[in-house]
Backbone:
């Protein structure tokens, strides 16, 4: 539910980073905050509990500057990944315009990825939205662990598990060192702004 | 790969999971290591190695317990509560936005602050039944049924609730507390002195007042989902519900003439199932709910 102020030519949209707990959603936002400091409007808000787990959400507002004469602002959110925080995830998804699904590449997290994607689909449906319609980008995170000999899910398996029906763009990433974080964000923004153009014609 | 190399690899894996905060996966891997050691002819007596792994398991268990004991929803600072209200209220009007903000606080477990906000709104006379329901949810979540009962008693003496509102709030209070496992006695409302009433139309004689309905759309993207709505207005067996503008796709799937095969109707004294037909739909053109939709449902009378 983007907010478009036609008079002042300002559009504000909402992008949510979704995925299983400990998959790297907060690390994505932390890297964005660090690397795109000029574009961030204020401090990143992060409410964590013991063990750096996201308990509520992370929030990072950004200004992308002028695009086709329109001032584009974006609010980035993460959701808490642990299964018990479903109602919080539903709340954060309210009015979402685009989603980045941060999948954990670790072999041991295969089931957690599947459950989280299913949870996303259900929560979007309850909001009157659909996982097949919303601008969505997959990010296969923690690829750097392969070099340490940790068993990772191969790309083919991740694609088969998570993206065989959705067929959305994907990015390999290592949020810890920033690899793939920027390209994921750019693609998600591009898809979201294109989608909003069809819905509310903000560049007219 | 030698046994030693295999153990080394598993240890590294378990340590990485632990550092990543994947405590259950880490524990499972340490257990796997103990099992491998136990089956090994050369390592089974390696006390130092076994003790080392056991000590790691104990440390992971401690972290798991600490996590379990962490408050599910700690009280946030005033600034963060203010931010939550700001970020999760979407309506344009002041009143609707204030309700959304307070509801958001409750959803994020900030029940005490939410109750304060709801109190303020109630004193301003803003949607008393909606506010009362949300306050009851907060009391139930805080597990303080007595506070809810005291509050209900106070509401009975205030004039912003009609008798029918109070009946509904009483039923909601009872259900909410029972759902949380509290057995409570809530006195029935005292009988009102009987007044001569106007002659009733045929439908009114047989139709109960309905406070809320649950429906299951049969088409559109929300097909098969159960959706609950408060009844905004009732005339005989036709009830009017409000649907937010964001749920336009629901309105589109419930065009006038659509049959509803299963409607759950909640009245202050009972719950019953019925069938019905969508008899009207319109978009609100002005006022605080501008842009939202009204939907009329005519419930089958027999």
Residues:
């Amino acid at each position: 539910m983007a907010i478009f102020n036609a008079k002042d030519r300002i559009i504000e949209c909402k992008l949510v980073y979704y995925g299983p707990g400990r998959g790297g959603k907060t690390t994505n936002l932390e890297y964005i905050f660090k690397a795109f400091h000029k574009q961030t409007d204020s401090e990143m808000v992060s409410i964590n509990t013991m063990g750096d787990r996201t308990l509520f959400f992370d929030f990072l507002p950004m200004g992308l500057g002028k695009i086709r004469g329109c001032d584009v602002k974006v609010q980035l959110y993460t959701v808490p990944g642990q299964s018990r925080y479903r109602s919080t995830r539903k709340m954060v998804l309210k009015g979402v315009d685009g989603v980045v699904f941060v999948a954990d590449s670790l072999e041991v997290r295969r089931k957690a990825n599947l459950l989280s994607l299913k949870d996303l689909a259900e929560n979007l449906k309850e909001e009157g939205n659909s996982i097949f319609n919303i601008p969505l980008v997959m990010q296969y995170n923690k690829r750097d662990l392969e070099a340490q000999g940790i068993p990772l899910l191969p790309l083919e398996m991740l694609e088969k598990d998570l993206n065989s029906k959705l067929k959305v763009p994907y990015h390999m990433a290592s949020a810890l060192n920033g690899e793939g974080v920027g390209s994921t964000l750019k693609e998600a923004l591009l898809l979201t702004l294109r989608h909003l153009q069809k819905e509310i014609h903000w560049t007219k | 790969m030698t046994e030693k190399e295999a153990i080394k690899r598993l240890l590294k894996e378990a340590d990485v999971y632990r550092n990543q905060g994947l405590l259950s996966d880490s524990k499972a891997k340490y257990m796997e290591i103990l099992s491998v050691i136990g089956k090994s002819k050369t390592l089974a007596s390696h006390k130092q190695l076994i003790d080392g792994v056991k000590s790691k398991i104990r440390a992971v268990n401690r972290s798991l317990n600490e996590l379990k004991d962490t408050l599910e929803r700690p009280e946030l600072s005033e600034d963060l509560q203010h931010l939550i209200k700001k970020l999760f209220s979407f309506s344009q009007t002041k009143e609707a936005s204030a309700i959304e903000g307070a509801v958001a606080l409750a959803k994020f477990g900030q029940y005490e602050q939410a109750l304060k906000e709801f109190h303020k709104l109630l004193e301003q006379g803003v949607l008393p039944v909606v506010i009362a329901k949300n306050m009851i949810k907060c009391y139930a979540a805080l597990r303080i049924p007595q506070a809810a009962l005291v509050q209900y008693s106070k509401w009975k003496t205030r004039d912003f609730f009609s008798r029918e509102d109070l009946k509904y709030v009483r039923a909601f209070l009872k259900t909410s507390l029972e759902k949380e496992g509290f057995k409570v006695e809530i006195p029935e409302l005292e009988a009102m002195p009987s007044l001569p009433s106007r002659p009733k139309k045929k439908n009114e004689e047989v139709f109960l007042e309905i406070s809320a309905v649950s429906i299951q759309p049969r088409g559109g993207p929300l097909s098969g989902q159960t959706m609950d709505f408060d009844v905004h207005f009732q005339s005989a067996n036709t009830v009017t519900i409000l649907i937010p503008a964001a749920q336009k796709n629901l309105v589109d799937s419930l065009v006038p003439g659509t049959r509803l095969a299963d409607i759950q109707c909640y009245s202050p004294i009972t719950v019953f199932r019925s069938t019905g037909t969508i008899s009207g739909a319109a978009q609100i053109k002005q006022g605080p709910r501008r842009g939202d939709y009204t939907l009329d449902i005519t419930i089958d009378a027999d």
User: Anything to note?
Assistant: The beta strands of chain B are 212-215, 227-235, 238-243, 259-266, 271-283, 293-299.
